[in-house]
Every structure is written in structure tokens, then in C-alpha cells.
Write a structure and sequence with these properties.
By secondary structure, the chain is α+β, with helices and mostly antiparallel strands. The chain contains 6 helices and 25 strands. It is globular and about 60 Å long.
């Protein structure tokens, strides 16, 4: 897509925007008291605003929300041990009550899962089979983009590939749905969804700017040679532009896997200019200090998630599904673009939130890709909504990068 000031394609990405932070940005908020006046306050285990958001979402106390986050972390560690011990599992997801449900390949694996203190089930299909079904749908969509299909993804909770439909008037969509339904009850079709679009808009102010347009800074990392790079949404740097922060250049786009109207993955990197750096704290726009980046461990479906963005600032929700494919509609009449490899969330975003930072606890999760065309957030941390993000760990692996952490 071209990013010229006039007659340019208008890309609106609906989710989390990270802010460019200097190396000297203050650390996050602290909590807790001690009877010894001289003793330093202890850093909270979780970002306070995330705890507050989760408590509001679940309708529980903040103490109960912290207990749930502790339980989630413990269950994730147990699941990691099962995989390390080569127990045959087919993915896992968090249920509404906060329990991690592990899909076991057979009865023996289920016994091992339960022995580890986790819930187990032997699904009819499981992650591997659903991934194969989705891969066939991806291949079909990449030949002819189904404009009437917003997204399709593996949903472990329902043990299906879920297809979200906004209309079925075009031939490509009808053909796609026919192929999807040929899989019987392994595919679940949900109608009445909105069209999706990427979201980068002409800036009213200055964050990460290029050619008169705006996106947002994602995460800093270094390549195999030690060179510092910015990891962001691929569509933000489709033309590999020079990037500016507060009017001053700080990086130059070098690689992107996004191209309008063709098979795309929404990841890209820019080389950071000498003398500049990407900070190690995600801004919450004054709502709760800053959040340190300490790793990029992927959060399971159902885990708490927050994002920082230029337009909607600090909003929170939960991780949806991974391995999501979407059809993005160009608002200027250009070709539709199928993007694969995304993750979905219930985090609310709007235009101008492109390219920035999703984080769960202190673990970086990804960068904004897109969301519903007409979505409007209400200004609250827990604004109801949805969005799609490019998982960070996939981008790090693809480009051979090491995340900068605190």
C-alpha cells in the first residue's frame, strides 16, 4: 500500500499500539507497605491496572483477580512440565472459571494430565486435526480472498474451526463456505460479523510517523549480529519508510511480510538508528505507570491481556484464539487482503492503534494488526470490543531476533 499524503490507501488497525519509550522511562507502579519505614516497597506481581480490569470483567474483588492470575501462572507452568515430559497433548485453553483444560491425545495422556493437577479431556479432533482443516481453508482463501468472511480460526474450547461471516454475496465467499461446510461439524459458521480492516490513520499528533501517516511503536529486539530493530505490524512499514518519533527520525523499515491484495503475514521490522533505542516499559498513558517487558512467553487462550494504543490508550480483555486468518477490506476500494497467523482478543481498539504493544502480566504478546471497521471504544479500560494482533514470538522466531527485556 502507498502511504502518500494524498489519495493514499487508508489503513486502520484496530488494536494495541505501543509507544516509543526512551531508555530512561520510569518503572511501573509499586504497591505494598512494610512496618520498617526504611525498607523498599515491593514491586507488585502484576500490573495494577490489569488486575483492576480483570476484577471488573469477572465481577470479583482485586484480591480474587490476583488469585486467578496466580492460578493461571501455576497451571501454565504445570502444562509446560507435561510437554517437557513428552505427554501427548493436543493444545490447552482456559475455561471461564480459570481452569486450564488440556486436550489429551488418549486416555493414558489424560491420566498424566490429571496427575499433574490439571483438567483433561480427550477431544474428538484436537489442535493438530483442526490446524490441518484450517490450513486447507487458508490455501483456498489465498487463491481468492473471501470478502464475506471476516476471520477463521482454530477454537480449542469448541473443538472446531470457527468461521466468522459478514456476508456471502461474492463467488469467492460462497466457494469458501462450501469448502468449510464440507468438513461437517468440525467447522462452526458464525454469521452477522463485521468486516475487518487494518487501521493506520493520518495522525492528529505525533507518535510513530511516516510520510504524513501514523502507526505506533511495538517492541525492541536485536538480530543475530546485535543490531537493534523495532518489531511492528508489517502493514505499517509496507513501503519500508523512514520512521519518526516526535518529529525526529529514529528508524528505517527494512523487512515486511505484508502486501495489499496478496498473501500476507502482518509482521515487519525496522532498523533502529544509532543513538536511539526502544524502551523496556510499555506506557499505560498515565493510567497505571508503566509496565516492564520481561519476556515473551505466549499466554494461553483466555488469559488476561492489555494493550497500549495511540487512539484508545490502555484497554484490557482476554486472549481469544491463535492461528487466526482474516480478510481485510481496503477502505479505498483496493483489493481485499487475506492475512494469516494472527491472534484474536477481546481488547477494544480503533483506527490509529496500529503496530503497538499487547502485554499479559510482564510478558510481551504482540502488535496490533486489525479489527472491526466501525468499532468504537467507550474510553474505559474494559471497553467491550475485539481486535487481532500479530503474535510477537512468531515474529521473533521468523526474523531470528532476541527481545530486549528488563
Amino acid at each position: 500500500m502507498k502511504h502518500g499524503k494524498k489519495n493514499a490507501r487508508r489503513y486502520i488497525v484496530a488494536a494495541s499500539i505501543g509507544a516509543l519509550l526512551s531508555a530512561g522511562v520510569a518503572t511501573g507502579a509499586y504497591a505494598g507497605t512494610t512496618e520498617e519505614p526504611s525498607a523498599p516497597a515491593a514491586a507488585p506481581a502484576y500490573q495494577p491496572e490489569m488486575v483492576k480490569a480483570l476484577a471488573t470483567t469477572l465481577g470479583v474483588s482485586e484480591k480474587a483477580a490476583v488469585a486467578r492470575l496466580d492460578r493461571e501462572a501455576d497451571q501454565q507452568d504445570r502444562f509446560a512440565e507435561l510437554r517437557k515430559d513428552r505427554v501427548d497433548t493436543l493444545g490447552a485453553f482456559f475455561a471461564e472459571d480459570g481452569s486450564l483444560v488440556v486436550n489429551a491425545a488418549d486416555a493414558k495422556a489424560a491420566e498424566d494430565v490429571r496427575a499433574a493437577g490439571l483438567e483433561a479431556r480427550v477431544p474428538e479432533r484436537g489442535e493438530s486435526e483442526l490446524d490441518r482443516i484450517k490450513a486447507r481453508l487458508d490455501a483456498k482463501a489465498l487463491k481468492s480472498a473471501p470478502a464475506g468472511v471476516s476471520a477463521w480460526s482454530v477454537d480449542l474450547a469448541s473443538d472446531t474451526v470457527t468461521v466468522e461471516v459478514n456476508g456471502d454475496s461474492d463467488a469467492a465467499t460462497r466457494s469458501f463456505l462450501e469448502a468449510a461446510r464440507s468438513n461437517g461439524d468440525a467447522v462452526r459458521v458464525v454469521k452477522g460479523q463485521e468486516k475487518l480492516e487494518t487501521q493506520a490513520v493520518v495522525p492528529p499528533g505525533s507518535r510513530m510517523t511516516f510520510n504524513g501517516y501514523l502507526c505506533s511503536v511495538g517492541y525492541g529486539a536485536k538480530d543475530r549480529n546485535g543490531k537493534q530493530v523495532l518489531v511492528t505490524a508489517g502493514h505499517c512499514i509496507e513501503d519500508l519508510p523512514a520512521l519518526a518519533y516526535n518529529g525526529t527520525r529514529f528508524a528505517k523499515g527494512t523487512h515486511t511480510r505484508f502486501a495489499l491484495g496478496t498473501r500476507s503475514v502482518d509482521m515487519g521490522i525496522a532498523t533502529v538508528d544509532a543513538g536511539n533505542s526502544i524502551g523496556l516499559d510499555v506506557t499505560t498513558y498515565g493510567r497505571a505507570g508503566t509496565v516492564p517487558v520481561k519476556g515473551s512467553k505466549r499466554a494461553p487462550s483466555g488469559a488476561a491481556l492489555c494493550k497500549s494504543g495511540q487512539t484508545t490508550q490502555w484497554t484490557c480483555g482476554k486472549v481469544g484464539s491463535y492461528n487466526v486468518s482474516v480478510t481485510y477490506t481496503d477502505q479505498n476500494g483496493g483489493p481485499d487482503t487475506v492475512v494469516t497467523g494472527l491472534a484474536s482478543s477481546s481488547v477494544c481498539t480503533q483506527g490509529g492503534d496500529s503496530g503497538g504493544a499487547y502485554i499479559s502480566g510482564d510478558q510481551a504478546q504482540g502488535m496490533t494488526s486489525g479489527g472491526p471497521t466501525n468499532q468504537r471504544c467507550n474510553g474505559q479500560v474494559n471497553s467491550p470490543g475485539s481486535s487481532y494482533f500479530q503474535p510477537l514470538d512468531d515474529a521473533l522466531a521468523y526474523y531470528g531476533l532476541t527481545l530486549n527485556t528488563k
